[in-house]
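From the methods appendix. Each design record in this collection lists the tokenized structure first, followed by the designed amino acid sequence. Records were kept in a plain field format so they could be parsed without special tools. The example shown here is representative of the layout used throughout.

RECORD:
FOLD TOKENS (95 positions):
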């Protein structure tokens, strides 16, 4: 991995954390990759707002079904999982 990729990866992680923090009404510095959305007290509406925010910020389409998130194939098990999913979508789009 080149330095550019690592810098982009850090920027992606930071922006995703900012989007999640905004919906959870906490400071971005309080959002850790090991946290779940439940840890942040985000409900389903907050999750949907996060998804919209991420799609807008990164110009990606997230395959997500709010009614049944387990069937969407988009891992929302933790903040870190969401970041990895977004990184994958961005990489796929760039290819």
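DESIGN:
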């Amino acid at each position: 991995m080149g330095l550019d990729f690592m810098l982009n990866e850090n920027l992606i992680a930071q922006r995703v954390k900012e989007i999640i923090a905004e919906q959870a009404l906490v400071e971005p510095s309080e959002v850790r990759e090991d946290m779940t959305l439940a840890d942040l007290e985000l409900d389903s509406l907050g999750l949907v707002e996060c998804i919209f925010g991420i799609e807008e910020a990164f110009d990606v389409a997230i395959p997500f079904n709010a009614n049944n998130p387990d069937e969407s194939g988009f891992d929302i098990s933790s903040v870190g999982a969401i970041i990895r999913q977004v990184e994958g979508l961005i990489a796929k789009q760039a290819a």
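APPENDIX NOTE: DSSP finds three helices and no strands in the chain.
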